[in-house]
Amino acid sequence: MDLTKYSHEKVSDHVIRVVDALDVAAYLIVGEERAVLLDTCFGFGDVKAAVEAITPLPLTVVLTHGHCDHICGVDCFDHAYMNLKDMPIFEEHRDVAFRRDSLVKIHGLELDESEFRVIPDGILEDLPEDTVMDLGGVTLKLLMAPGHSPGSLVALIEEDRVLMIGDVCDDNVLLFDDHSSNVSGYMAALQRIRDLDGLYDHVLGNHGAFVFKKEIIDNVLECCRKILAHEDEHILTNMLGHTLYSACAVGDDMLRLDGKQGNVLYREDKAV
Ligand SMILES: [Zn+2]
């Protein structure tokens, strides 16, 4: 496998999905005057060169949260923005030994530590809550949605009616470690995004099929309600070394057996 390859595909008037060799997506939002790269994938090869081959516009890099499959290409750039509530996660996840171990757990891929580039100190600047960026003819709204991590955000482009949801909502939302919110805190943050429902038609993710039905948000909210009422399926699951419970029954492909999109994998103490 050539880990340095990137592919890309236009997904709306102003949005291009950039995908790394490990099937993690970043999103490039291109206005008339500038562009934003939302996330930087696992960080092999040169994601900056891949993006500059798509657009010559001045580029701002924004990270949706601090996990290693979103941040590790950041060293290609002079600096990037992230809500610094995720700084403790970023510090843990930029560590080369941690990244090496994660690739073994996620992909069964054993690499030498020399194959990972080092992310330098001081590369991040704080992204204030609910930042709005005018890119020229298109406006990017970066909205906080803590839960999966304390600094997690989603990106809304009303002109394209597109919501890029990061890991805030997914086939399997992870509330899995000390940094994650409990279910009620996450549910309140997700409900705030649900309340913007009239502003988007398309929900784009960074993993799996990358495209979700809008209903995924309602489905995940329903999972949260069931967890809090102790009415979920509560199936013991091991994920990335964490002992978790799955709100819904899933198959070997980790997709719901009832065919709906959206599930929550949670640590037992998060079920409040
Ligand atoms: Zn994540």
Topology:
Layout (H helix, E strand, L loop, with lengths): L5 E5 L4 E6 L4 E6 L4 E4 L8 H6 L6 E4 L5 H4 L8 E3 L4 H7 L2 H12 L16 E3 L4 E4 L4 E6 L8 E5 L4 E3 L8 E3 L7 H12 L7 E3 L6 E2 L2 H14 L6 E5 L2 E5 L17 E3 L6
Parallel strand pairs: 4-5, 6-7, 11-13, 12-17
Antiparallel strand pairs: 1-2, 2-3, 3-4, 8-9, 9-10, 10-11, 13-14, 15-16, 16-17
The protein binds zinc ion.
Note down, in words, how this protein is organized:
- The protein has one domain: 4-Layer Sandwich (Metallo-beta-lactamase, Chain A).
- About 20% of the residues lie in helices and about 25% in strands.
- The chain is built from six helices and 17 strands.
- Helix 1 links the parallel strand 4 and strand 5.
- Helix 5 packs antiparallel against helix 6.
- The termini are far apart.
- The mean pLDDT is about 95.
- The site of zinc ion has 4 residues, from loops.
Shape, principal axes of CA atoms: globular
Radius of gyration: 18 Å
**CATH class type:** Alpha Beta
CATH topology: Metallo-beta-lactamase, Chain A
Ligands present: zinc ion
**Proportion of beta-strand residues:** 25-35%
- Taken together, the total number of domains comes to 1
Total DSSP helices: 6
What is the N-to-C succession of helices and strands?
Answer: EEEEHEHEHHEEEEEEHEEHEEE
State the main characteristics.
6-stranded mixed sheet; 17 strands; 5-stranded mixed sheet; single chain; globular; 272 residues; Metallo-beta-lactamase, Chain A; binds zinc ion; 26% strand; alpha+beta
Compact summary:
This protein is of the alpha+beta class and 272 residues long.
